[in-house]
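[User] I wish I could look at a protein chain and see how it folds. I have put the entry right below:
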Amino acid sequence: VCIEGRGGTVSNCVIRNCQGATMDCYGGGACLLVANALVTHCVITNCYVSSSSPAGSAEHGGLGVYMSAGSLRDSLIAFCGSNGTSYDSGLKGQDGTIAIRGGTVVNCTVASNVNATCSGIRARGGKVINTIISANRVTTSVLGDTATVMAGKVAGDSVSTTFENCLADKDVDGKFAVEDPAQTFLRPGNGNFRLRTGSKAID
């Protein structure tokens, strides 16, 4: 799904089994490029960007979602990259399950994704609000800080102005509430991301 030009809305959809595999791909499942682009109440799952894409390019990234504008709201992004094809080595996995350079991510859950070096959210701009980033896994420690990457950041990216009221399984720069995935979700490994009673994610 790519929303550009005059914009548009995708709602109440399941976006799955998608692959961005060309040199000009943006996001495996959804791409938001304009201010009036909206993806809401969706599930984005089992999507990936192949290793044919340029590593760390300023124009590419996001196993599940790439966004430079617009809004991703009330959605679940899970099991992206779990087929092991995405960004298998080196720095090619640094752009996260969501690569955000502008726009907003609000009330979303990013969980049980797999990538080489960043399986959470890679933010170079925009805002991430009221979002859970948990139970994600990296397959290398090429950047030297696996815990930080799992929480959603690659070394050198500032989180001080990007993340607001978010929960993760590891903290980054004191910006996240921290909770073990087993205390947050009922059965994340089986795709049950309902919140457990007593989770910090419940307002």
Summary: The two ends are 32 Å apart (CA to CA). Confidence is low (pLDDT under 50) at residues 52-59, 82-92, 143-152. The chain is about 5% helix and 35% strand. The longest strand covers residues 8-11.
